[in-house]
């Protein structure tokens, strides 16, 4: 029987290293048992991906991580993905810090994704080569005074707390001069003004943002290069709280806005807007309140007034007794309402 040809092993070593770098580091290391040729390939990977959930014991994960750091060839780590255990009992902060320090020590770290709720290591704060940073479950106030990643182009914050800042306003993004993509997911904020100011920001997405201020929160977006804006589910303290979103983005073309509570939009210098979608789907318990519905209808009129320059607007509200839709389509030099649908359905 003719033996199958091992094409993978015949690939140039740099290609093999790239392939292994795309894998979970645990499985990349396991390739050492394939043959003598493969025994040391994993030591040349340029990306590290550590996930404690693939280990049955915390001690086994710690032992594995230290083994990799000890035997990997000493050169730049381009990408690091460091996940942490779900429970505090399974956490090992000293190992997590050791991995972060190791990745930053050679310089050239470009991408970092980690779930980290301890104090951020100084080695990462000073890592000016970072281009992509994804943080989960982290209190960002620890970085407020030193968040100046000059090369950062993509920032994603998930489950992040902005609530313990000492000032009424908060803006850490203005120091990231090359930031192009900003994603905020399921985070929280507890002060009066939340500022997003970034000169080169192109894409901005905010979803599940919990606003914990006892009065109201004002979100100010100032981004002269912004093109795509997505805002969904800003969560207030209660149904009687109205939050204000102020947008100043002269180049924004596409705006998607989804709300489950009352919001006030203030539009400034958005002359390039081409398409806007607004969806308002309040919780069922809120839909029965007449005053609340009337307030929302007033907000609808205010929203449409702010976007008369848009080529296309689609706004829909959903209540227990009806659904409202309005479509605005560009017609020559002016924007006119071409269709309004108002449908009521009694709830017995």
Automatic annotation (TrEMBL):
Residues 8-43 form the F-box domain. It comes from the Eukaryota. Residues 115-278 form the F-box/LRR-repeat protein 15/At3g58940/PEG3-like LRR domain. This is Uncharacterized protein. It comes from Acer yangbiense.
């Amino acid at each position: 029987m003719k033996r199958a040809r091992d094409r993978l092993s015949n690939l140039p070593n740099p290609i093999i290293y790239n392939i292994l770098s795309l894998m979970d580091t645990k499985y990349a290391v396991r390739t050492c048992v394939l043959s003598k040729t493969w025994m040391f390939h994993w030591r040349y990977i340029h990306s590290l991906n550590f996930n404690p959930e693939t280990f049955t014991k915390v001690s086994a994960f710690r032992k594995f991580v230290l083994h990799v750091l000890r035997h990997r060839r000493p050169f730049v780590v381009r990408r690091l993905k460091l996940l942490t255990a779900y429970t505090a009992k399974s956490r090992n902060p000293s190992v997590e810090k050791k991995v972060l320090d190791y990745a930053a020590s050679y310089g050239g770290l470009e991408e970092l994704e980690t779930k980290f709720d301890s104090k951020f290591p100084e080695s990462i704060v000073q890592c000016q080569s970072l281009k992509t940073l994804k943080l989960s479950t982290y209190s960002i106030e620890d970085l407020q005074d030193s968040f100046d990643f000059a090369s950062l182009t993509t920032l994603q914050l998930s489950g992040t707390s902005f609530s313990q800042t000492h000032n009424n306003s908060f803006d850490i993004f203005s120091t990231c001069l090359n930031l192009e993509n900003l994603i905020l997911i399921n985070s929280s904020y507890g002060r009066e003004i939340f500022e997003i100011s970034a000169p080169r920001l192109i894409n901005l997405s905010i979803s599940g943002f919990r606003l914990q201020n006892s009065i109201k929160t004002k979100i100010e977006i100032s981004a002269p290069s912004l093109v795509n804006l997505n805002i969904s589910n800003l969560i207030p303290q209660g149904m009687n709280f109205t939050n204000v979103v102020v947008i100043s983005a002269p180049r924004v073309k596409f705006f998607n806005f989804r709300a489950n509570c009352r919001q006030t939009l203030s539009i400034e210098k958005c002359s390039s807007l081409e398409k806007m979608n607004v969806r308002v789907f309040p919780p069922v318990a809120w839909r029965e309140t007449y005053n609340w519905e009337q307030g929302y209808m007033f907000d609808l009129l205010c929203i449409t007034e702010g976007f008369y320059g848009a080529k296309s607007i689609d706004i829909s509200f959903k209540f227990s007794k009806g659904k409202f839709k309005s479509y605005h389509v560009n017609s020559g030099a002016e924007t006119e309402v071409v269709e309004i649908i108002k449908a009521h359905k009694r709830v017995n």
